[in-house]
From TrEMBL:
Its cofactor is (R)-lipoate. This is Dihydrolipoyllysine-residue succinyltransferase component of 2-oxoglutarate dehydrogenase complex. Residues 198-214, 257-278 have a biased composition (Low complexity). It catalyses: N(6)-[(R)-dihydrolipoyl]-L-lysyl-[protein] + succinyl-CoA = N(6)-[(R)-S(8)-succinyldihydrolipoyl]-L-lysyl-[protein] + CoA. The lineage of its organism: Bacteria, Pseudomonadati, Pseudomonadota, Alphaproteobacteria, Rhodobacterales. Residues 85-95, 103-115 have a biased composition (Basic and acidic residues). It comes from Pontivivens ytuae. Forms a 24-polypeptide structural core with octahedral symmetry. Part of the 2-oxoglutarate dehydrogenase (OGDH) complex composed of E1 (2-oxoglutarate dehydrogenase), E2 (dihydrolipoamide succinyltransferase) and E3 (dihydrolipoamide dehydrogenase); the complex contains multiple copies of the three enzymatic components (E1, E2 and E3). InterPro entries: 2-oxoacid_dehydrogenase (IPR050537), 2-oxoacid_DH_actylTfrase (IPR001078), Biotin_lipoyl (IPR000089), CAT-like_dom_sf (IPR023213), E3-bd_dom_sf (IPR036625), PSBD (IPR004167), Single_hybrid_motif (IPR011053), SucB (IPR006255).
Length: 512
């Protein structure tokens, strides 16, 4: 008996989806509700669970193909244990006659000797509009034993870093894409001999890397990304201390090594002013990561495209701090999360966006698209650069719901675990420079959004209240906005409404 796997509900007005990734292949066992595929629409990413336990018998729709609602994706043979060779997809059957290289043939022989099936390690889902990635690091080498789901490599796209897990346990038989190589969204990265527990013992000596003698007599191959960086910086292997396995030089080793003096390669584009040789020897040149290049490009695009303007105000944080102090212990006890300032600011912004909807809108050609919801972007600093995870439907969440979601996204951002879906669809952004001590700044828009709120350091200052000079905890607020669709009146009104809600939090409860 077989069970059909069909496209799940895609949501209102969504008429088609693209098969982004299959996490199982024909012949593999699946459990009920186990995620076996991922679909992408123009709005969201949709997971496809297995409706029944059994063996995936056929994949009807291949990765990259577009399907409609309720379309048949695959079939599952309940309780079956068919071999993968009997249920291969049509595309695999059509490619079985392609001639293989000598290295591939040797990998086949190794698999046969170890009695395991060869399993391809493919590029995981990169997210909407991402078509390529760079292999940043391999954490395993040919012959290493790996466990199922163990991270074996890391890819870098222009938006996020993506971890590559081992699809099965076994031994790395072949690394197809070297460090530093650029691969497509559906590329094969490596081959694992499933079930093997030790490296093949009959590898011919001819397979030893040809470049080994160049590494100061070492018989190991340096990381390709390290060799490329050494060439860029005018270094030789004997000038770099390798910390990898058996003295292998890794990219990080080259970054730590002193740069070559004046004979280093010349700058690629805008020429620099002449640098004295003794200063050049103390400089370090590091190639920008794809994420940093994207951040730089998007921020500059925002300045070039939007008519960006910033308006400022200040808020007395006394009421929020008193309320937080009064209820924080009880709040944490009940909800299991700390009551922070971000939930107050998120709620205040959602409240103000209702009155000034153009700040929650975007320009699409000659149209203005007004959003009837708030997907709040929370700018977060990470070791690799600024990212903006999104709290979806923040306007419908409670204080506890907002704090939990911000905490979850913040942890994943710091750990480099954010997915593309976590950072897509934001309609407005909050950036808190105050955590770094910033007293005042002008935040840059996050296109295509038309507004971003900048929070800053809370500092006690003398202010006049009812004719008396008093000391209050004050914070400067900054709203940067796109003047093409947000007028000055709307921007000022928005910031005043945020100020009023924070200085009198009861207004949030009364919807005033």
């Amino acid at each position: 008996m077989s069970t059909e796997v069909r496209v799940p509900a895609l949501g209102e007005s969504v008429t088609e989806a693209t098969v982004a990734t299959w996490f199982k292949k024909p012949g593999e066992a699946v459990e009920t509700d186990e995620m076996i595929a991922e679909l992408e629409t123009d709005k969201v990413t949709v997971e496809v669970p297995a409706p029944a336990a059994g063996t995936l018998s056929e994949i009807v729709v291949q990765e990259g193909e577009t399907v409609g609602p309720d379309a048949l994706l695959a079939t599952i043979a309940e309780g079956a244990s068919a071999g993968a060779e009997d249920v291969k997809p049509r595309s695999e059957k059509a490619s079985e006659g392609v001639a293989r290289s000598a290295a591939k043939a040797e990998a086949d022989a190794d698999a046969a000797r170890s009695g395991g099936e060869k399993v391809d390690v493919m590029v995981p889902a990169l997210g909407e509009s991402v078509t390529e990635a760079t292999v940043a690091s391999w954490f395993k080498k040919v012959g290493d034993v790996v466990e199922a789901d163990e991270m074996i490599a890391e890819l870098e796209t222009d938006k996020v870093s993506v971890e590559v897990p081992a699809p099965v346990g076994g031994v790395i038989a072949e690394l197809i894409a070297e460090e530093g190589a650029t691969v497509g969204a559906d590329a094969k990265l490596a081959i694992i001999t499933a079930g093997a527990t030790s490296a093949p013992t009959t590898k011919p000596a001819a397979e030893a890397p040809a470049a080994a003698p160049a590494s100061g007599g070492k018989d190991v191959e340096d990381a390709p990304s390290a060799k490329k960086l050494m060439a860029e910086r005018g270094l030789t292997p004997d000038q770099v201390n390798g910390t990898g396995r058996d003295g292998r030089i890794m990219k990080e080793d080259v970054l730590r090594a002193p740069s070559a003096p004046a004979e280093a390669p010349a700058p690629a584009q805008a020429p620099r002013a002449p640098v004295p040789a003794d200063d050049a020897a103390r400089e370090e040149r590091v190639k920008m990561t794809r994420l940093r290049q994207t951040i730089a490009r998007r921020l500059k695009d925002a300045q070039n495209t939007a008519a960006m303007l910033t308006t400022y105000n200040e808020v007395d944080m006394s009421a929020v701090m008193d309320l937080r102090k009064k209820y924080k212990d009880e709040f944490e006890k009940k909800h299991g999360v700390r009551l922070g300032f971000m939930s107050f600011f998120t709620k205040a912004c959602c409240h103000a966006l209702v009155e000034v909807p153009e700040v929650n809108a975007e320009i699409d050609g000659t149209d203005i698209v007004y959003k009837k919801f708030v997907h709040m972007g929370i700018a977060t600093g990470t070791p690799t650069g600024l990212v903006v995870p999104v709290v979806r439907d923040a306007d419908s969440l409670s204080f506890a719901g907002i704090e939990k979601k911000i905490g979850e996204l913040g942890k994943r951002a710091r750990d480099g675990k954010l997915s593309m879906a976590d950072m897509q669809g934001g309609t407005f952004t909050i950036s808190n420079g105050g955590v770094y001590g910033s007293l005042m700044s002008s935040p840059i828009l996050n296109p295509p959004q038309s507004g971003i709120l900048g929070m800053h350091k809370i500092q006690e200052r003398p202010v006049v209240v009812n004719g008396q000079i008093v000391i209050r905890p004050m914070m400067y607020l900054a709203l940067s906005y796109d003047h093409r669709i947000v007028d000055g009146k709307g921007a000022v009104t928005f910031l005043v409404r945020v100020k009023e809600a924070l200085e009198d939090p009861q207004r949030l409860l009364m919807d005033l």
